[in-house]
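Input.
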Amino acid sequence: MTDGVDEAADALTGTILAGRFEVVELLARGGMGKVYRAVQMPLGRPVALKVLDIKGGGASRADFRGRFFLEAATAAKLSHPNTVTIFDYGMSGDSIYFIAMELVEGVTLAEIIKRKGPVDPARVAHMGVQICGSLSEAHAMGVVHRDMKPSNVLLTHRGHDPDFVKVVDFGLVKVLGDETENDFTQTGMMMGTPKYMSPEQISGKEVTEHSDMYSLGAVLFFALTGKPPFDAASKFDILTAHVNNEPPRMRDVFADCQVSEALEGVVRRCMAKVPEDRYRSMHEVSRALRACEQELRGTVKKFDRRSRPRAPTGTPEALAEAIQSGDTTSMTPTPGATPTSGLVALPGSHPIRSMSPPMPSLPAAPIVPTSFAPPALTSTGSNAIVTATPSAAPSPSGSHRPIAAPVTIPIVQNQLNFLRSALIASVAVNVLALSAMVYSIFSDRNSARETAVANESRVRVITDPPGAHVTRNGRDLGDAPVNLMIPANEEWTVELQLNGYAERSIVVSGGQDDVRVRLERGVQ
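Output.
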C-alpha cells in the first residue's frame, strides 16, 4: 500500500458496503477508485461495484457530491440493451461514493486490440451500430457520454453474437481504463481521454452529442487500424492534432487494413472538425454503418455507375439511372424526339397512357362541311338552292385525288347562317360544360386529399427494451420509440428487430393509442 487511498480501497475486500453489498474481489484499478466483484443482498445478484474515493486528488471539489448524484441518477435511467445497467448508487461514510452496475463477463475493445490487433471491418461496423444505439438513447435523454474510448466498450457473448456490445461510464468519473497515463480525469482537470476527445471538448466549448460522435469515429479508427488517429509523446501534441489536423488515411497507418471506402468515409465524417459537418444524429450514423456492414458481408451489391453500361439517352432506363446517380445529363432528349416539357421521350412502340381519369363523352357538335369551293346558285330567288363542289385534296405523293361528283345541299342562305350560329353556340356550351367538369374533378381530388391527411393519426411504437429497429415492407421507419403517421382506416404490419431479442411482427392501426411491445430474449 502506497497511500491512504489504496489502503481504504483495499480494506473493502471481504466487507459489506452500505449494508447491502458484499465485496468479493478486486477487478480493476483506476486513477480515482477501484471496481470490485460484489453481491447485492438480499437479492444475491452479482454486480460490478465501482467505488470512488475523493479524499485525495482534484476530485475533492465542493461540487463533486452534487454532480455525482445528479449524473448517477440520470445514467441509472438508461435501459438500452447495449448500455451497462446501473442498479444502485450512493455514499458510504464521508468520502466513499459507489455505483452498483450490471456485471458483464467480457473484455474491452482495448484489450482485444492489444491481444489480437485490428478487427475485421465488418465486425467493427457491427460494433459501431450497437454503440450508436446506446448513445442514441442517452442523447434522447440529454445524457452525453463525454469519455467514449475503447476501454469503455465491453464485448461479451450474447446468443449467437460473439461481439455483443456494452457501453460503460456515461458521464461518470473515470475509474476503469487502460490508458490511465493519458487521462485528465484522474486529476479532476477534464472529463475525457486526449486520444479520443473532440476539438470542441479540447477547446472548452459546449460538449454535445456531436462530441460523442467524434469520439466514436476515433474509436472506430482505432479498432480498424490498431492505433488512435493521433498519437504523440505529449498530451499537448495529441490535443493540438485533434483541433488542427485531418485524420490520416487508414491504410497509411495500417497497410493491411481492408476497410472499404464507404466505411472510411463514415469514420472521417464522424471526425469532422466542425460539429455541423458531422452526421445530424447517432441514428444517421447507425444507418450508415449498417449499410457498410451489409456491403462488407456481401449481402448487398455496391452501386457503381462507372462499371455499368449507360442506357440509351432519352429512355426510361436513363431516367432511372440519372435519378439514382444524381447525374442529370442523361435526361437530355434524343435527337428528333418531340419536346415534352421535360418529359423523357418513350419509344414509339409504346403508346403513352394518360394518368388522369377518363373524361365523360360530350354531346356531338353539328358537323358542317368546311372544304367546299365557293358555292354557286343554281337559280335565283329567296328559295335558291345552294350547290357546293368539294375541293380536290392532294395525295401523299403530291397528285390530286379525283374530284367527287358535286354535292347539292338543299339549304337556303338564311338557314346556313342559322346553322353557323348554332355551331358557335354549341361550342360555347361545350366549353362551359368542360370547364365545370374539370373544376369538379380537381375539387373532388383536393377534398379527398385533405380528408386523407386529416384522417392520419400519429401512433407511437415503444419497445421494452427500447432501440428496436422498426421496418415496414423493407422500408426503414427508425428505432423505437418512433412515431408512425397512419391513416385512420388502415392497418400496418411492422417488424421489430433488436440484437439479442427475438424478431417480432405487430399490427398497428390508425387512430390507435401508444403501442408498447415487450421483446423476448432470443436469437434474431
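Residues 413-454 form the longest helix (42 residues).
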